[in-house]
Design a protein that fits this description.
alpha+beta, 2 domains, seven-stranded mixed sheet, globular
Length: 315
C-alpha cells in the first residue's frame, strides 16, 4: 500500500449480471443486464521507486514480468497512460475485489474500469464516458477477443440497462420477484464460447441465426416483463433462453444441473448467465422462496449463491 502522504488515485467498478442476450449481443441483438453492486473490483495507483509494479490476488511483482493472467489489467494500465500522456516509471497499481474470475460476472471489465479510473485520477485527469469505455474495451479485447462492449458499460452503470450496438439505455424495473445467482465452480471461457458460436454460424448459418434472432427477441420481451411485474412470464423466457443457449453449445453439464435444481425447488425459471461453458446460473424466484432455492442450488453442487433484488441490490 502507498505510504502516508503520497498522491494516490483510486477507482472502483461493480460486477454485472446478464439477464438476457449473452452471445447474441455480439451479432447486434439486444441484451439486458443488472448491476451487482455488492461485488466490486477496486484499484489503487501510486508512484514509489522506479520499477513499475502490479499487485493482486493472482500476481504481485514487477509489471514487466506479469504472467498472462494479468495481461488485460496490464493493458488497461499501459493504454490509460498512453491516452493521458503518463509514464510507467515508479507506478504501482494494486487491484483487489470480490468478483470471482471466469464466472461471467464481469470481473475483467470491472478490474479494467477500476484501473483506468485509478491511473487517470492519479494524474488528475478526468476522462469522458467515451474515453473510459474505449480504454476498458482495449483491455477486454485482450481478455476476450472481440467484446461487444456490454461488460464495459454494465460494470459502470448503477442501474438495469438494455444494451445494443455499444449503446445502453436504462430499464425501469417494477418486478417484485428476486434473483438467485449460483456459481458452478467451473471456470468458464467467454473467448472459447464466442468462438464456438461463430463456428456454429459457419457450419449451419440458417439454424444458428434463427436461434440468435429468437434470443434477441426474448431480450425485449423480458424487458416488458420486468417493467410490468410479470415474473412467471419472465421465468418461462429465462428457461427458454437457457435451452436455446444450450443448443448453441455454450452450456455445461454443471450449468444444466443447477438450472434443473432451481426450477425443481420452485424457481419460476433459470438460465446460464455470461459466457457459459461454466460459470453461473441465475434463477428468478418469488421473494419468499429465495432461501429455499439457494439451499437447493448448494445441495446440487453450487459453491456459492447470491440473492439480489430485481435491480441488483443484495437481499
Amino acid at each position: 500500500m502507498p505510504r502516508v502522504g503520497r498522491a494516490v488515485g483510486r477507482g472502483s467498478a461493480h460486477a454485472k449480471l446478464i439477464l438476457f442476450g449473452e452471445h447474441v449481443v455480439v451479432y447486434g441483438k439486444p441484451a439486458v443486464a443488472l448491476p451487482l453492486r455488492a461485488m466490486r473490483m477496486r484499484a489503487t495507483a501510486w508512484r514509489e521507486g522506479t520499477e513499475p509494479r502490479f499487485e493482486s490476488d493472482h500476481y504481485t511483482g514487477p509489471l514487466a514480468a506479469a504472467p498472462e493472467i494479468v495481461e488485460a489489467p496490464r493493458t488497461a494500465i499501459e493504454e490509460t497512460l498512453r491516452a493521458i500522456g503518463g509514464d510507467l516509471e515508479g507506478l504501482t497499481v494494486a487491484v483487489r475485489g470480490n468478483i470471482p474470475l471466469g464466472r461471467g460476472l464481469g470481473s475483467s471489465a470491472a478490474a479494467a474500469g477500476a484501473i483506468v479510473d485509478a491511473v487517470s485520477r492519479l494524474h488528475n485527469v478526468t476522462l469522458s464516458g467515451g474515453e473510459h469505455f474505449a480504454l476498458v474495451q482495449l483491455a477486454e479485447q485482450v481478455a476476450h477477443g472481440k467484446p461487444s462492449g456490454l461488460d464495459a458499460l454494465a460494470t459502470t452503470i448503477p442501474s438495469p440497462i438494455r444494451f445494443q450496438n455499444a449503446s445502453a439505455v436504462p430499464v425501469p424495473v417494477a418486478l417484485d420477484a428476486c434473483f438467485v445467482i449460483a456459481d458452478t465452480g467451473v471456470h468458464g471461457s467467454t473467448r472459447q464460447a464466442v468462438d464456438d458460436v461463430r463456428t456454429s454460424l459457419e457450419r449451419d448459418h440458417d439454424a444458428t441465426m434463427t436461434i440468435i434472432d429468437t434470443l434477441g427477441d426474448l431480450s425485449d420481451l423480458a424487458i416488458t416483463d420486468l417493467e410490468t411485474n410479470e415474473a412467471r412470464s419472465l421465468g418461462a423466457r429465462m428457461t427458454q433462453a437457457h435451452e436455446l443457449l444450450s443448443a448453441l453449445g455454450v452450456s455445461h453439464p454443471a450449468l444444466d444441473e443447477l438450472v434443473a435444481a432451481a426450477t425443481g425447488a420452485g424457481a419460476l425459471g433459470a438460465k446460464l448467465t455470461g459466457g457459459g461453458l461454466g460459470g453461473c446460473i441465475v434463477a428468478v424466484v418469488e421473494r419468499g422462496n429465495a432461501s429455499a432455492v439457494a439451499a437447493a442450488l448448494q445441495g446440487a453442487g453450487a459453491i456459492q449463491t447470491w440473492s439480489i433484488t430485481s435491480t441488483g441490490t443484495p437481499l
